[in-house]
Amino acid sequence: MSIPQTIEFDTRKAKRFHIVCFDLETSGLDLDDHEVIQIGAIKVNESLNRHVIKSFEMKVRMENPERASPSALKVNRYDLEVWAKEAVSKQEAAIAFAEWIVDGSDHVKFAGHNLAGFDWPRICRMFERADTKIMQVRRPRKNQEPEGEDDKGEFIKQAMIPGSGYHSLLDTGPMAAMLQLAVGQQELGSLSLRPLARYCGFIHDDDQAHEALYDCMTT
């Protein structure tokens, strides 16, 4: 049985604002049956000056490999020998990712391609199953009742992950949809990351696509 873990950081005097762009590879597309098998992430300044402050990559061990989709594992370059050597448990991955997010940052926003529809619900589900939370300590907004306040009523503790209602999500998926409307489907192709990157002039190597860290670097 996993031990519940809570990692929190205080945004009340935030000075270091960062964007965490992350990408997940999974054992299939079903939220309930399939699992996260790889996490890739980079942290950049909120000014988006392209300077990568640090990166994160971790392979995650499947708890139910019999449920995995063979086609998904093939697309995501799953190698049984590599995962046997490098993968960690779901809780180890959740704790390591949470600590990486918090380290060196006072406030973060999350970014990704199709983040709201795919990666965000899956990272929240993984954290839930791993009994791990990232809690944000922040000042209450005007006319907002504090929850978990101190003696002076100065703070709110709000779950960032898991927490499907977290507001600071930057998703390039809807941007791709708007671009497709503007230039036409024939010009852009699908709304996936590869054609979007190529249209915008970025190299997205087919031989590295669906590697979590490579995809979030492209995003």
Automatic annotation (TrEMBL):
SMART domains registered for this protein in UniProt: EXOIII (SM00479)
GO terms for MF: 3'-5' exonuclease activity; nucleic acid binding
UniProt KW keywords: Exonuclease, Hydrolase, Nuclease
Residues annotated as domain Exonuclease: 18-219
InterPro entries: Ribonucl_H (IPR013520), RNaseH-like_sf (IPR012337), RNaseH_sf (IPR036397)
Signal sequence range: none
Protein's UniProt name: Exonuclease domain-containing protein
Native source organism of the sequence: marine sediment metagenome
